Amino acid sequence: MDTTPESTINNRYELDQMAEGFSAFVGSYPSFNRTLLLDEWRETEYNRLDANGQIYLDYTGGGLYGESQLCEHMELLRTSVLGNPHSANLTSMAMTDLVEGTRKYVLRYFNASPDEYIAIFTPNASGALKLVGEAYPFTPDSHYILTFDNHNSVNGIREFAKDKGAQVAYVPLAKPDLRIERAKLNGILNLADQDHNNLFAFPAQSNFSGVKHPLDLIELAHGKGLDVLLDAAAYVPTSRLDLGIVKPEFVAISFYKMFGYPTGIGALLMRRTVFQKMKRPWFAGGTVNFTSVQGNGHYLAPNEAAFEDGTVNYLDIPAIKTGLQHLEKVGINTIGNRVHCLTGWLLENLLSLQHSNGKPMVRIYGPTDTNMRGGTMTLNFYGPDERLLDYRRIEELANEKGISLRTGCFCNPGAGEIAEGLTKEDMIAGLNDGPDLSLPHFIQVIQHRGNKSAGAIRISVGLSTNFADVYRFMRFAAGFRDKTNMNIGEVTFDIQSCRVIRDGS
């Protein structure tokens, strides 16, 4: 008589099924076998994922750090005496060497010549973008042109532009792939007067749809006399950005999205040719060569020092070099290849999901193949009655399975509004409720205006994702076959905004 526990039998069955699925997967994506070093890292650098039963699918939200990164950085802190770099004492000079060494390494990593670019340390990509917005010399004759597909921190620059009287114009996206409408972009860029300062902003990779927008748009804009701001935060964790080939005036990045640790440090890479015309609206400690209270004047410091307000996060900055070296050990092309393979498999399997009545279970916003796209997939589930399943409830159910995904609008309202079919009238209907409008209430407004969504589910794969992660997510996704909102239950908490603060009691 077989006395093997049922749970053990089920686990064996799942492992057998997964092994069979993996065999079919590598048959379709044989280049995955060239990324097996990352499976070794999963067992050494990232073993806490499996030890804690976690399936992490939020790499666009933030990367994960390897254990060796922490060990190297902690050893530096444990064995060194390091002081504030704004001085010439021994500990300060030691720290200055580490900070400046990291700065040079950042430029080298992106193949940005120090004769052409400076690297400014910021709190994050948003901090980098704010520096551009507040200091760019917009005038009433300027144009700020940006795509619908942009992070809110890029959208926010329009407030600086409008305050200085500049014209703001958005370039639309084409459905269903949510790519930039090239012909319309060309026409909008032609509106800019080349005799004035004009700025064009777009993401190298969408944090909403995963679309990789073509980097030749940089030279297109240059040819029409515009400066270019490239938001590279979602792009550089899995793709090579070579600033020896493409040369935007500004590049914004967040290092934690690349390699997890440390948080709280980003960078603005700025071309020296544009540096001279930037006009900072204030000065701070560390940004001036000289200032006087009685003389009521100041002179900004040269180069990156003019933009690094106060004391930089100096103890964590050396961990940036460690993180970049961590990526170089495996190679960004290896990471990109793995992401390409896993993304392709996920897209194929998500699109194959059907209810018993033949209705599709999933709608994907953006490209449904791997051509010019990264590992970010945004989607919603629908019931057999074709009604939208509450994405907030799906996130709760994912939590019960140890799956970390992300829901909401992902700070990219333009792409979301286009993807989900929201109209200008829909948005005005919500905005007319006033500043107390919350996300749950806006969802109700939109639902009353039709079977539309005011948010979605985002999954994203990255450096430490393995086949088991995506296989188990697909098992979870398949569990919504023939399910309606009534079957899955109601959401137990409301997210009032993009910031979630849970009661610790």
What does this structure look like?
With 505 residues, the protein is α/β, with parallel strands linked by helices. It folds into two domains: 215 residues, Aspartate Aminotransferase, domain 1; 258 residues, Aspartate Aminotransferase, domain 2 (3-Layer(aba) Sandwich). It has 20 helices and 17 strands. A seven-stranded mixed beta sheet has the order 2-10-9-8-7-3-4, sandwiched between helices. The longest helix has 23 residues. The protein is globular. The protein starts with 5 loop residues before the first helix and ends in a 17-residue tail after the last helix. The relative contact order is 0.14.
Observed structural traits:
14% strand; disordered C terminus; 4-stranded antiparallel β-sheet; alpha/beta; 7-stranded mixed β-sheet; 2 domains; Aspartate Aminotransferase, domain 1; 505 residues; 20 helices; Aspartate Aminotransferase, domain 2
